[in-house]
Design a protein that fits this description.
- The structure holds 2 protein chains of 2 kinds.
- Chain A is globular and about 55 Å long.
- Chain A contains 9 helices and no strands.
- Chain A has one domain.
- By secondary structure, chain A is an all-alpha fold.
- Helix content of chain A is 83%, strand content 0%.
- By secondary structure, chain B is mainly α.
- In chain B, 81% of the residues lie in helices and 0% in strands.
- The radius of gyration of chain B is 21 Å and the shape is globular.
- The chains are: A mainly alpha, B mainly alpha.
- Chains A and B meet through helix 7, helix 8 and helix 9 of A and helix 5 and helix 6 of B.
């Protein structure tokens, strides 16, 4: 099982890093959004501590949408989706492999975008950066799960790239609320782990619930 | 079919009676709010609290709509009968209508009680998220042309959408606990509670009736299209 997941994930990563088309546009998109935010807010905005975490999550959400939309559509367009389905890989390992692939892309974007954001907005970080990054990663895991699952639903739709945010964001709202809130507490108020425990717990529960339901329903999404 | 129609007619009569009773009680029989329950909320609530009876019962219908979508989606994935898909999509459409009414009446209530049409209390936030889930469900449906794929994929989204109900509520509670701006609500006397139950009952019947109408209309449409394509083939 773990072998199969790694096969799917490494295949996608190898294809991606040959052309680097998706990851390049994701990173550039994240950067340009951050720059535009800092233009819009003006130099050294006084209220950045409050709104910063929300803006950062907006960047991640939009960047994620850009990448996730390609997950299954790419396979479909290249005609490799049929091959993936008739291969002896279980459908579950396809989903998890794709999620790991998306997670890797998001992680690369975040490692680059998070420091850039802090620098460009002149953010005065009060809490621990490690904890903040842990919260970002935890939120990303949930976002990647729901995004990968929803991208499997849009392969037959007409307006795929436009449809994905419309169906993913409402389901991601609870997660984003918890992620933004905890990130704000750590970055702006300097809270420790025990003060964001409720949000971490909620994100963890969200991840568990969404993973279970994704695993139960993914079979139906790819059958034809 | 004929028997079904007779039941539907009876249902409609019962619906009118129940909703009229409920509205009469809510608007005329119930007195103004007592001064001690007005302590925490604005003065316009003395009479204006009656909007509650036209707001909160819609929430019950929205939750029912989500539950119907969940059950119909699971049943569709199990036995692939198109009627489950019709039930789910009809329920989503009605849910969207009731959710819109809930949002509008909810913000009137909020304005009367706290002086702002929108104050992000957990109920309002959750209702807004549910509105977007239903809208997303319907736009997913409209973007897929193939009947079978539309039914299957939207059924999966319907199951996820149901999870959004508790999750969005819990997250909204966590969120608003950070900024406790307003003391919440007011308590109803026993008669008020009874009126609420009556109106909830009336709206649930209304939902069931409209769902039945929607599903049978869609069934007729399917039948018509089948006959039309058959006639074309024979030509």
């Amino acid at each position: 099982m773990i072998n199969e997941i790694l096969i799917v994930a490494s295949k996608d990563l190898r294809v991606e890093f040959r052309s680097k088309s998706t990851i390049n546009s994701m990173v550039l998109f994240a950067m340009i959004t951050i720059i535009i935010f800092s233009f819009g807010l003006g130099p050294f905005p006084p209220y950045i501590g409050e709104v910063g975490p929300g803006l950062l999550w907006l960047v991640f959400l939009f960047t994620g949408m850009l990448g996730f939309a390609r997950t299954f559509v790419h396979e479909k367009e290249m005609g490799t989706f049929e091959g993936l389905k008739i291969s002896p890989l279980s459908t579950l390992s396809i989903l998890i492999g794709k999620a790991i692939f998306n997670f890797t892309l998001m992680l690369i974007v975040e490692i680059l975008a998070f420091p850039l954001f802090l620098v460009m907005t002149g953010y005065n970080v009060k809490g621990s950066l490690v904890l903040a990054f842990f919260l970002i990663v935890l939120g990303t895991i949930g976002f990647v799960i729901i995004g990968s699952m929803m991208s499997a639903l849009i392969i037959n739709a007409r307006t795929r790239e436009m449809l994905l945010p419309i169906i993913t964001f409402p389901l991601a709202v609870p997660l984003v609320i918890a992620a933004t809130l905890s990130l704000k507490k750590v970055l702006a108020d300097g809270s420790g782990f025990s003060e964001v425990f409720v949000e971490v717990e909620f994100m963890f529960i969200y991840i568990v619930i969404m993973s279970i339901v994704s695993m139960l329903t993914f079979d139906y999404a790819v059958e034809e | 079919m004929k028997l079904e129609r007779k039941y539907a007619f009876l249902l409609l009569c019962a619906l009118y009676v129940i909703i009229l009773i409920g509205m009469y009680e809510a608007l005329i029989v119930l007195g103004p709010l007592s001064p001690e329950s007005l302590r925490w909320i604005g003065d316009p609530m003395e009479q204006g609290y009656r909007i509650f009876f036209f707001s909160m019962p819609n929430a019950a219908v929205v939750y029912l709509a989500f539950f119907v979508i969940l059950i119909a989606s699971i049943m569709y994935l199990r036995d692939r009968q198109i009627r489950w898909d019709l039930i789910a999509s009809g329920s989503a459409k009605l849910g969207l209508v009731f959710c819109t009414i809930l949002l509008i009446t909810g913000s009137i209530f909020s304005n009367l009680a706290w002086g702002a049409y929108w104050n992000w209390d957990p109920q309002q936030t959750a209702a807004l998220v549910l509105w977007f889930i239903l809208a997303g469900y319907l736009s997913l449906r409209s973007a897929i042309e193939d009947d079978e794929a539309r039914a299957r994929l939207s059924a999966i989204f319907g199951i996820f959408g149901f999870l959004g109900v508790p999750l969005s509520y819990v997250s909204a509670v966590i969120w608003s606990s950070i900024h406790p701006r307003f003391a919440t609500g007011f308590s109803l006397d026993p008669l008020g509670k009874l009126v609420t139950i009556i109106i909830v009952l009336g709206l649930l019947i209304l939902f069931a009736y409209l769902l039945w109408l929607e599903v049978s209309a869609k069934k007729l449409e399917k039948e018509y299209q089948r006959l039309l394509s058959k006639a074309k083939r024979e030509e």
